[in-house]
Design a protein that fits this description.
With about 60 residues, the chain is mainly α. The protein is built from 3 helices and no strands. It has one domain. The protein is extended and about 50 Å long.
Length: about 60
């Protein structure tokens, strides 16, 4: 925090922290690492679903 009491961090940093529980299963040890040839289609499907979700912002 600065002396004025405002956060110096970018606004998206807290959003990333809140997303960690949602992706926790991907971070567990023992799961396979991302393989572009194998996982690209599933990843693109996931990203397109995120783009369709309404934002929670103002």
């Amino acid at each position: 925090m600065s002396e004025s009491g405002e956060w110096d961090d970018p606004a998206g940093k807290l959003a990333l922290l809140y997303d960690l529980p949602r992706i926790a299963e991907l971070l567990r040890p023992g799961l396979q690492a991302f393989a572009p040839d194998r996982d690209r289609a599933e990843f693109e499907r996931y990203v397109s679903e995120l783009e369709r979700e309404p934002s929670a912002g103002p």
